[in-house]
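Please, is this right?
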Amino acid sequence: MEVFTLFGTDEHKEKYLKPLLDGTIRSAFAMTEPDVASSDATNIEMSMVRDGDDYVLNGRKWFASNAMHKNCRVLIVMGKTDPAAAPHRQQSMMVVPIDAPGVTVVRNLPVFGYHDREGHAEILFEDVRVPSKDVLKGEGEGFAISQARLGPGRIHHCMRAIGVSERALELLCRRAQSRVTFGKPVADNANIQDWIAEARIEIEMIRLLTLKTAYLMDTVGNKEARTEIAAIKVAGPNIALKIVDRAIQVHGGGGVTDDFPLAMAYAHLRTLRLADGPDEVHKRAIAKQELRKYRDLRPTS
Protein backbone atom coordinates (compact mmCIF):
# COMPACT_ATOMS: atom_id res chain seq x y z
CA MET A 1 0.00 0.00 0.00
CA GLU A 2 2.88 2.35 0.80
CA VAL A 3 4.36 1.87 -2.68
CA PHE A 4 1.05 2.38 -4.47
CA THR A 5 0.34 5.47 -2.35
CA LEU A 6 3.71 7.08 -3.06
CA PHE A 7 4.47 5.90 -6.59
CA GLY A 8 1.35 4.41 -8.16
CA THR A 9 -0.54 6.05 -11.01
CA ASP A 10 -4.18 7.03 -10.66
CA GLU A 11 -5.03 3.79 -12.45
CA HIS A 12 -2.97 1.74 -9.98
CA LYS A 13 -4.62 3.46 -7.04
CA GLU A 14 -8.10 2.88 -8.38
CA LYS A 15 -7.48 -0.74 -9.39
CA TYR A 16 -5.33 -1.89 -6.50
CA LEU A 17 -4.87 0.64 -3.69
CA LYS A 18 -8.55 1.18 -2.92
CA PRO A 19 -9.33 -2.57 -2.73
CA LEU A 20 -6.20 -3.05 -0.57
CA LEU A 21 -7.39 -0.36 1.81
CA ASP A 22 -10.85 -1.95 1.85
CA GLY A 23 -9.27 -5.31 2.66
CA THR A 24 -10.86 -7.09 -0.31
CA ILE A 25 -7.57 -8.00 -1.99
CA ARG A 26 -3.95 -8.63 -0.94
CA SER A 27 -0.64 -7.77 -2.58
CA ALA A 28 2.87 -9.20 -2.40
CA PHE A 29 6.32 -7.66 -2.79
CA ALA A 30 8.69 -9.72 -4.95
CA MET A 31 12.29 -8.59 -4.51
CA THR A 32 14.32 -11.37 -2.85
CA GLU A 33 15.89 -13.97 -5.14
CA PRO A 34 17.25 -17.45 -4.31
CA ASP A 35 20.41 -17.20 -6.41
CA VAL A 36 21.91 -13.95 -5.07
CA ALA A 37 22.52 -12.28 -1.70
CA SER A 38 19.44 -10.10 -1.75
CA SER A 39 20.42 -8.17 1.37
CA ASP A 40 22.30 -6.08 -1.21
CA ALA A 41 19.48 -5.00 -3.53
CA THR A 42 21.95 -4.13 -6.30
CA ASN A 43 22.50 -7.90 -6.69
CA ILE A 44 18.99 -8.44 -8.04
CA GLU A 45 19.20 -10.33 -11.34
CA MET A 46 15.64 -10.65 -12.66
CA SER A 47 15.69 -9.54 -16.29
CA MET A 48 13.30 -6.80 -17.41
CA VAL A 49 13.89 -6.23 -21.13
CA ARG A 50 12.10 -3.54 -23.12
CA ASP A 51 10.16 -4.84 -26.11
CA GLY A 52 8.11 -2.14 -27.79
CA ASP A 53 5.55 -0.83 -25.32
CA ASP A 54 6.14 -3.77 -22.99
CA TYR A 55 8.83 -5.19 -20.75
CA VAL A 56 9.52 -8.91 -20.75
CA LEU A 57 10.30 -10.37 -17.31
CA ASN A 58 12.32 -13.49 -16.67
CA GLY A 59 13.58 -14.69 -13.29
CA ARG A 60 12.76 -16.33 -9.99
CA LYS A 61 11.72 -14.75 -6.70
CA TRP A 62 11.10 -16.17 -3.26
CA PHE A 63 9.89 -15.07 0.18
CA ALA A 64 7.13 -13.06 -1.48
CA SER A 65 5.02 -12.69 1.66
CA ASN A 66 1.22 -12.72 1.22
CA ALA A 67 1.50 -14.29 -2.25
CA MET A 68 -0.12 -17.51 -1.02
CA HIS A 69 -3.17 -15.68 0.33
CA LYS A 70 -6.34 -16.61 -1.52
CA ASN A 71 -7.09 -12.94 -2.15
CA CYS A 72 -3.63 -11.95 -3.44
CA ARG A 73 -4.20 -10.24 -6.77
CA VAL A 74 -1.12 -8.19 -7.54
CA LEU A 75 2.67 -8.31 -7.23
CA ILE A 76 5.15 -5.45 -7.08
CA VAL A 77 8.25 -6.89 -8.73
CA MET A 78 11.81 -5.57 -8.66
CA GLY A 79 14.23 -6.43 -11.45
CA LYS A 80 17.03 -5.13 -13.62
CA THR A 81 16.17 -2.97 -16.63
CA ASP A 82 19.64 -1.59 -17.41
CA PRO A 83 22.65 -3.68 -16.29
CA ALA A 84 24.99 -1.04 -17.74
CA ALA A 85 23.68 1.83 -15.62
CA ALA A 86 25.13 3.02 -12.30
CA PRO A 87 24.65 0.33 -9.60
CA HIS A 88 21.68 2.06 -7.95
CA ARG A 89 20.00 2.96 -11.26
CA GLN A 90 19.88 -0.50 -12.82
CA GLN A 91 16.69 -1.62 -11.08
CA SER A 92 13.03 -0.91 -11.71
CA MET A 93 9.77 -1.92 -10.09
CA MET A 94 6.68 -3.00 -11.97
CA VAL A 95 3.09 -3.87 -11.16
CA VAL A 96 2.26 -7.42 -12.22
CA PRO A 97 -1.08 -9.19 -11.72
CA ILE A 98 -0.44 -12.51 -10.00
CA ASP A 99 -2.46 -14.30 -12.68
CA ALA A 100 -0.53 -12.74 -15.59
CA PRO A 101 0.56 -15.27 -18.26
CA GLY A 102 4.00 -16.65 -17.40
CA VAL A 103 3.69 -16.11 -13.62
CA THR A 104 3.85 -19.41 -11.71
CA VAL A 105 3.57 -19.65 -7.96
CA VAL A 106 5.92 -22.58 -7.39
CA ARG A 107 5.53 -23.32 -3.69
CA ASN A 108 4.90 -22.02 -0.19
CA LEU A 109 8.23 -21.84 1.63
CA PRO A 110 8.18 -23.27 5.17
CA VAL A 111 10.16 -21.54 7.92
CA PHE A 112 11.63 -24.05 10.40
CA GLY A 113 8.85 -26.36 9.23
CA TYR A 114 6.07 -23.81 9.77
CA HIS A 115 4.01 -22.08 7.09
CA ASP A 116 3.19 -18.43 7.65
CA ARG A 117 -0.50 -17.55 7.69
CA GLU A 118 -0.33 -15.69 4.36
CA GLY A 119 2.64 -17.67 3.06
CA HIS A 120 6.10 -16.98 1.69
CA ALA A 121 5.96 -17.86 -1.99
CA GLU A 122 8.56 -18.86 -4.52
CA ILE A 123 7.45 -17.43 -7.87
CA LEU A 124 8.74 -18.10 -11.39
CA PHE A 125 8.49 -15.46 -14.12
CA GLU A 126 8.79 -16.77 -17.67
CA ASP A 127 8.44 -14.24 -20.51
CA VAL A 128 5.92 -12.22 -18.51
CA ARG A 129 4.87 -9.16 -20.50
CA VAL A 130 4.28 -5.96 -18.53
CA PRO A 131 3.02 -2.73 -20.17
CA SER A 132 5.37 0.23 -19.77
CA LYS A 133 2.56 2.11 -17.98
CA ASP A 134 3.00 -0.33 -15.10
CA VAL A 135 6.57 0.76 -14.35
CA LEU A 136 6.46 2.52 -10.99
CA LYS A 137 7.91 6.04 -10.88
CA GLY A 138 10.10 5.39 -13.94
CA GLU A 139 12.85 3.15 -15.21
CA GLY A 140 15.85 3.03 -12.90
CA GLU A 141 13.88 4.04 -9.78
CA GLY A 142 13.57 0.56 -8.30
CA PHE A 143 16.32 0.88 -5.70
CA ALA A 144 14.99 4.22 -4.46
CA ILE A 145 11.47 2.78 -4.18
CA SER A 146 12.78 -0.22 -2.24
CA GLN A 147 14.34 2.07 0.35
CA ALA A 148 11.13 4.09 0.69
CA ARG A 149 9.10 0.92 1.11
CA LEU A 150 11.34 -0.95 3.52
CA GLY A 151 11.30 1.66 6.30
CA PRO A 152 7.58 1.34 7.09
CA GLY A 153 7.79 -2.42 6.57
CA ARG A 154 10.54 -2.73 9.15
CA ILE A 155 8.69 -0.80 11.82
CA HIS A 156 5.58 -2.92 11.24
CA HIS A 157 7.68 -6.03 11.87
CA CYS A 158 8.84 -4.53 15.15
CA MET A 159 5.31 -3.65 16.25
CA ARG A 160 4.33 -7.28 15.76
CA ALA A 161 7.45 -8.41 17.63
CA ILE A 162 6.35 -6.32 20.62
CA GLY A 163 2.95 -8.01 20.56
CA VAL A 164 4.57 -11.46 20.48
CA SER A 165 6.85 -10.43 23.35
CA GLU A 166 3.86 -9.44 25.46
CA ARG A 167 2.11 -12.73 24.72
CA ALA A 168 5.25 -14.73 25.54
CA LEU A 169 5.70 -12.90 28.85
CA GLU A 170 2.08 -13.59 29.77
CA LEU A 171 2.53 -17.30 29.01
CA LEU A 172 5.79 -17.36 30.97
CA CYS A 173 4.15 -15.83 34.05
CA ARG A 174 1.09 -18.07 33.93
CA ARG A 175 3.18 -21.20 33.53
CA ALA A 176 5.64 -20.20 36.26
CA GLN A 177 2.78 -19.69 38.73
CA SER A 178 0.96 -22.91 37.85
CA ARG A 179 3.89 -25.33 37.88
CA VAL A 180 5.46 -26.66 41.07
CA THR A 181 9.01 -28.05 41.25
CA PHE A 182 10.92 -29.15 44.33
CA GLY A 183 8.04 -28.14 46.54
CA LYS A 184 7.45 -24.59 45.38
CA PRO A 185 6.04 -22.72 42.37
CA VAL A 186 8.52 -22.13 39.57
CA ALA A 187 7.73 -18.41 39.91
CA ASP A 188 9.37 -18.37 43.35
CA ASN A 189 12.82 -19.01 41.87
CA ALA A 190 15.01 -15.91 41.78
CA ASN A 191 16.23 -16.54 38.24
CA ILE A 192 12.64 -16.76 36.94
CA GLN A 193 11.79 -13.48 38.64
CA ASP A 194 14.87 -11.94 37.03
CA TRP A 195 13.66 -13.15 33.62
CA ILE A 196 10.22 -11.64 34.20
CA ALA A 197 11.61 -8.29 35.34
CA GLU A 198 14.11 -8.13 32.48
CA ALA A 199 11.38 -8.98 29.97
CA ARG A 200 9.16 -6.14 31.17
CA ILE A 201 12.07 -3.68 31.08
CA GLU A 202 13.13 -4.76 27.60
CA ILE A 203 9.60 -4.69 26.18
CA GLU A 204 9.16 -1.11 27.38
CA MET A 205 12.54 -0.18 25.91
CA ILE A 206 11.67 -1.47 22.43
CA ARG A 207 8.16 -0.05 22.67
CA LEU A 208 9.53 3.44 23.36
CA LEU A 209 12.16 3.15 20.63
CA THR A 210 9.46 2.02 18.19
CA LEU A 211 7.20 4.93 19.16
CA LYS A 212 10.10 7.37 18.77
CA THR A 213 10.87 5.91 15.35
CA ALA A 214 7.25 6.18 14.25
CA TYR A 215 7.14 9.78 15.46
CA LEU A 216 10.27 10.68 13.50
CA MET A 217 8.94 8.97 10.36
CA ASP A 218 5.76 11.03 10.62
CA THR A 219 7.48 14.34 11.39
CA VAL A 220 10.83 14.39 9.59
CA GLY A 221 10.53 11.47 7.18
CA ASN A 222 12.02 8.02 6.71
CA LYS A 223 15.40 9.30 5.58
CA GLU A 224 15.99 11.30 8.74
CA ALA A 225 14.74 8.38 10.84
CA ARG A 226 16.97 5.82 9.14
CA THR A 227 19.18 5.24 12.20
CA GLU A 228 16.18 4.63 14.45
CA ILE A 229 14.52 2.38 11.84
CA ALA A 230 17.69 0.29 11.63
CA ALA A 231 18.05 0.21 15.42
CA ILE A 232 14.53 -1.02 16.12
CA LYS A 233 14.81 -3.63 13.35
CA VAL A 234 17.80 -5.10 15.21
CA ALA A 235 16.49 -4.65 18.75
CA GLY A 236 12.87 -5.74 18.27
CA PRO A 237 13.35 -9.31 16.99
CA ASN A 238 16.36 -10.00 19.22
CA ILE A 239 14.57 -8.98 22.40
CA ALA A 240 11.41 -10.84 21.37
CA LEU A 241 13.45 -13.98 20.68
CA LYS A 242 15.08 -13.76 24.11
CA ILE A 243 11.72 -13.52 25.86
CA VAL A 244 10.15 -16.32 23.82
CA ASP A 245 13.20 -18.51 24.47
CA ARG A 246 12.82 -18.03 28.23
CA ALA A 247 9.10 -18.72 28.02
CA ILE A 248 9.91 -21.97 26.23
CA GLN A 249 12.36 -22.86 28.99
CA VAL A 250 9.72 -22.33 31.66
CA HIS A 251 7.27 -24.50 29.70
CA GLY A 252 9.78 -27.34 29.60
CA GLY A 253 9.22 -29.98 26.92
CA GLY A 254 5.79 -28.58 26.14
CA GLY A 255 7.36 -25.33 25.01
CA VAL A 256 8.93 -26.90 21.91
CA THR A 257 5.70 -28.62 20.85
CA ASP A 258 2.72 -27.19 19.03
CA ASP A 259 0.58 -27.53 22.16
CA PHE A 260 1.70 -23.96 22.86
CA PRO A 261 2.32 -21.10 20.38
CA LEU A 262 5.89 -20.49 21.51
CA ALA A 263 7.75 -22.76 19.08
CA MET A 264 5.98 -21.24 16.08
CA ALA A 265 6.55 -17.73 17.47
CA TYR A 266 10.26 -18.45 17.84
CA ALA A 267 10.50 -19.75 14.28
CA HIS A 268 8.82 -16.72 12.74
CA LEU A 269 10.68 -14.23 14.95
CA ARG A 270 13.98 -15.80 13.94
CA THR A 271 13.21 -15.02 10.31
CA LEU A 272 12.86 -11.33 11.22
CA ARG A 273 16.61 -11.20 11.84
CA LEU A 274 16.87 -11.77 8.08
CA ALA A 275 13.66 -10.32 6.60
CA ASP A 276 13.91 -6.79 5.20
CA GLY A 277 17.65 -6.83 5.79
CA PRO A 278 19.75 -8.94 8.18
CA ASP A 279 20.99 -7.56 11.49
CA GLU A 280 24.49 -7.08 10.10
CA VAL A 281 23.31 -4.73 7.33
CA HIS A 282 21.37 -2.57 9.80
CA LYS A 283 24.28 -2.43 12.24
CA ARG A 284 26.58 -1.43 9.39
CA ALA A 285 24.21 1.40 8.47
CA ILE A 286 24.03 2.61 12.08
CA ALA A 287 27.81 2.54 12.43
CA LYS A 288 28.24 4.53 9.22
CA GLN A 289 25.86 7.19 10.49
CA GLU A 290 27.71 7.43 13.79
CA LEU A 291 31.14 7.60 12.15
CA ARG A 292 29.95 10.29 9.75
CA LYS A 293 29.42 12.62 12.72
CA TYR A 294 33.12 12.55 13.44
CA ARG A 295 34.54 12.15 9.94
CA ASP A 296 35.90 15.68 9.69
CA LEU A 297 37.44 15.80 13.14
CA ARG A 298 41.23 15.95 13.15
CA PRO A 299 43.15 13.72 15.55
CA THR A 300 44.35 15.53 18.65
CA SER A 301 47.91 15.25 19.87
Observations:
- The chain has seven helices and nine strands.
- The chain has two domains: 2-137, 144-293.
- The radius of gyration is 22 Å.
- Residues 144-293 form a domain with the Butyryl-CoA Dehydrogenase, subunit A; domain 3 fold (CATH 1.20.140.10).
